[in-house]
Structures are given as structure tokens and as C-alpha cells.
Amino acid sequence: MIGRAEDAVIEVYQRHGPAWARLRGDRLTEGSWLARFCDRLPAGAGVLDIGCGSGLPIARELVSRGFEVTGLDGTPAMLALFQRNLPGAPAHLADMRDLALGRRFAGLLAWDSFFHLSPSDQRAMFPRFQAHAAPGAALMFTSGPAEGQAIGELEGDPLYHGSLGPDEYRALLGATGFAVVDHAVEDPSCGRRTVWLARQGG
Asked: Which of 18, 19, 20, 152 has its CA 20 to 30 A from that of 26?
């Protein structure tokens, strides 16, 4: 069950992208964390939104703050929503596990997307984060609070979530040149999300 759901995340979002966007809405419950992320970016910096979804509300907020957002999503339905909502922003259709844009960004964001990967796929992402991070870049992502796997649901379809343990995340970040700047487990101020904010050295 878990193995099939893990492989079907993109299919689920392709079937139910508009429904997800309606459920998500455009209320910026992540505002305090997004402010911390933005405080570490130079004015007008390039930000890669990995698993950008519809672009609302996060990418839109970044654009309103003057940042140059590039969206990346593996689901055509979600990317179409992103392009409709942010017509001036570059957008790439690609599975984040194949991330290879050949450029570096001052900010990397994987909010409510990275945790849909299996533990092994999450481990493999850290060198990809590093390859796309400019010196001093900020990286922010959400994870589970502890090592494990869980199945949620979207419109009745199973939706996979996975997480490593906090010690392993710290080790993976350190091994790829990132230092943890801030971390919260099940932060009540943003929907009980577990959040990591790190900075690339250099």
C-alpha cells in the first residue's frame, strides 16, 4: 500500500489539482516562516519554488516582495495553475527527483512538497539542493516531525508522506554545506508544520 501510494503522488495531484487549490486557498498561514526566509535573500534575488503547485499563496507573496520566482512541479495540472496565477514567472515541468536546471538560486523552497518523497528519494535530494544553491543561499522545506511514513488522502485518493529523523536531516544538510538556521517541530503558528530553514556556506 505504501509503496504504491509513494509512486502515485504525481498522479493524485494531476487528478485533483484544482480541488487541492480550492482546499489550500490563498491565506498565507506560513507568513512568519516566509518572512524569515525572505530576510536571508538579497533584494530581487532568484528563488526556486520546488513543488510550486498553483503558486498561491507562497510564490505570489514572493513575487510581491520583488523576488524572481521560478516554479518547478512534476504535475502538468498544477503547473498550469501556477502559470495562470503567475503568468510572468518561469515554470518548469519536472519531477523534483530529476532537478537539473543548470543554474543556482539565492533561495530554494520546498514547502509541503519534499515530504511526498520516500526516505531514499529525500536523501538523494540534498546534493541536488546543493547544486542549485548560490553561496549563502537559503533553503527552507517542511518534513514530518520524526522518521516514518504515513498515508493521507486527497479527494479520496491515498496521498503518501515520508520523513527522515531530525538527526539525519541535520547530517544531510551538513554534508552538503548547509547550516541549520532555524527549525521547529509541529509549529502551531503555521498549521503544525515541521519546518527547516538552512543556509548554504560560502
From this structure: 152
